[in-house]
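During the reporting period the student researcher (J.K.) took over the structure-prediction task from the postdoctoral fellow and processed the backlog of single-chain submissions. One of the processed entries is reproduced below for the supervisory committee.
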Amino acid sequence: MFAKIVSGSLSKGLTAAICNGGPEDRKIGELTIINGVKGKFLALISDITLDNSALSRRIVEDSLKSQTPDSFFENFHTKTLGVNISLIPLAYFNENSGELQRIDTIPRHLSNVGYAADSDIQLFYGKSDFKTLWPIGKPLKSNVEIPLDIDTLTKTSFGIFGKSGVGKTFLGNLIAALITASDTGRNTKLLIFDMHSEYGDTVKDSKGASYEN
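J.K. obtained the following structure tokens:
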């Protein structure tokens, strides 16, 4: 446990106050487990913020004006100057029924937030079997591959969204390769739209003839 839930809502996400460690120990994109009363929440760290209360600003100002050594203020970092993390709940595991559920509730105040262990990740995502569940990568600070259910994915259209440089094209190519590799008799067709033309200006048809994309 490294944080506790202090506020939040179902629509806007949760806020947890760090009680062990500092902001440099946390990373955006880390998976966490929130221990509720009846089950576990899988949540993603989406932001890290420093407390901006009047007391915090006063302590910082006093530390800059005084000749007191930095070691004197060290105790304030964890006990007075707060560090918060924003969490996006992804899924819920009901321990009473043993079922995975979509997020339709939130944990109560002061619920413990901890690291998502490898066993937790497998509990929520399953284990790769290279038949229906194919690995697409590892989350931060984990050795477990996140599997993707290709059958479920290809039942309808899907999109990959993110900031520039985060690896959308790489992930898209990987998923396209997995769809092709797992396609046993379905003859799945891939129609790729890329607004930045990262796949080139021309493509080849089934006969090898080039035409503009």
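The committee noted the following: The chain has two domains: 1-116, 126-213.
J.K. will present the remaining backlog at the next meeting.
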